[in-house]
Amino acid sequence: MVKRTQTAAAARGGPEDERLGIGKSFTYGFQHVLTMYGGIIAPPLIIGGAAGVSPAEIGLLVASCLFIGGLATILQSYGVPFFGSRLPLVQGTSFAGVATMTAIVADGGLPAVFGSVIASSVLGLLITPVFSRLVKYFPPVVTGTVITVIGLSLMPVAAKWAMGNNDKAPDFGSVSNIGLAALTLAIVLVLSKVAVPAISRLSILLSIVVGTVLAALLGKADFSEVGDGPIFALPTPFGFGAPTFDIAAIVSMSIVVLVTLTETTADLLAVGEIVGTRVGRRRIGDGLRADMASSAIAPVFNGFTQSAFAQNVGLVAITGVRSRFVVTAGGVVLLVLGMLPILGRVVAAIPYPVLGGAGLVLFGTVAASGIKTLSKVDYDGNLNLVIVAASVGLGMVPIAIPDFYHHFPAWVGTIFHSGISSAALLAVVLNLVFNHLKPGKAGSDPSVFATATRVIDYSDLKALSQLKNGDKIVDGKIVDAEGKPVPVRDADGRPVHYRIGSEPDAH
């Protein structure tokens, strides 16, 4: 933990305005970069692999994402008028759009991906003034469902990486490839258990390094092309060609942008609470505008949608370093790394089985975050369980059967081929129908799905074994601590109309 010292800047502003000096700022800023490094390099590796580009071009994508992530982080933390929350919030390539962009790249290539990111981000920028009014349509039951599906939809990527990624290679799926992935996974788990916080927090990054060294010793890593190309260079604008704009792809990415705006709003509120500073509507608006502006500019430099990195919000809480200038220094580090394409080529040379082993945990963490969000949802006396069940189910369809929409029009496939888009659309619609429109609200006798988390069996009611602390009798009926009716059913699951002290009437 770092003891905070009061400075003149902090006295005039909030805790986030404290200046620690150049040395400390860059030291703690580099820690932020290490914490998010594994997450920021994964999207360009996934999308570049799906696009079938060369290792050198994947290296360019990695360098570009580091570069634009640095620019976005500086804009968000340092800020300019109307853009930037001026909070210690790290920005980087969002996981939320990876599966959707992978689906888009299969049909239109990288230019279609870049075009959809530009158009959807501009749309997101335009709606930021009114987004605070739309947040109520993205409650935890929606965002938790979508984040869970994001993690689950990336699992096939991790599995293919573990097998070697190239299904035409003779060693694809070999014991040696899967064994290397398993070894990397084991290293992640071991390092996560280490009592040294700095090591456990960097377990993903360190496992990739150790796994790559072991792969090199086994002759399964090839770094011969790392030296081909410049060491230092600025990202080439539109290095993969001019962007193309496909309506279905834009609609699909626009859904992702709404989810991204919701996530960033949550991160802004969370970091404000951790820092101990007020985050009002204006500050949220400035933060969201920085998010969308950097996302719209990112494709110019061969980057993708930007969003706040939640793991770095956690790092602020763990270290106690609340200065936004520390994060700004981290953005400068990212910017410099993005101007070193040789670093991108090193990342591109990491064996896919190593990435697969680490990816299982990395992508699983995303799904676990969604499940954690869903654990906070109230499922009693409503249809939230139906929303989650149906949305996750629909989101899993294109993951289980990739050709499910093969015979549909191309625009249908582009939107629904992504499990994230499918789940998000259905979750939003069902949330509107069940939780905002009166005909869809669960009443005093809700459906069996709504009561699946708690149903009282009348035959055992007299023993009171099924009652909970806070339950009480009101007008002959059982209600819980919040005053909501508790459904009572007979042994066959049929609702029982009853009054305590009288015989039941089952229908």
Features:
single chain, 507 residues, mainly alpha, two-stranded antiparallel ribbon, two-stranded parallel sheet, globular
- Oligomeric state as shown: single chain
Rg, Cα atoms, Å? 25 Å
Counted by DSSP, the helix tally is 18
The geometry reads as globular
| N-to-C order of helices and strands | HHHEHHHHHHHHEHHHHHHHEEEEEE
Low-confidence runs (pLDDT<50, min 5 residues)? 1-11, 440-444
Give the structural class.
mainly alpha
- The CA-CA distance between the termini, in Å, is 62 Å
Task: Give the strand order of the largest sheet, numbering strands 1, 2, ... along the chain.
Answer: 1-2
Work out the number of β strands. 8
Provide the residue-averaged pLDDT. Answer: 81
Q: Can you summarize this structure?
A:
It comes from Amycolatopsis thailandensis. Helix content is 59%, strand content 4%.
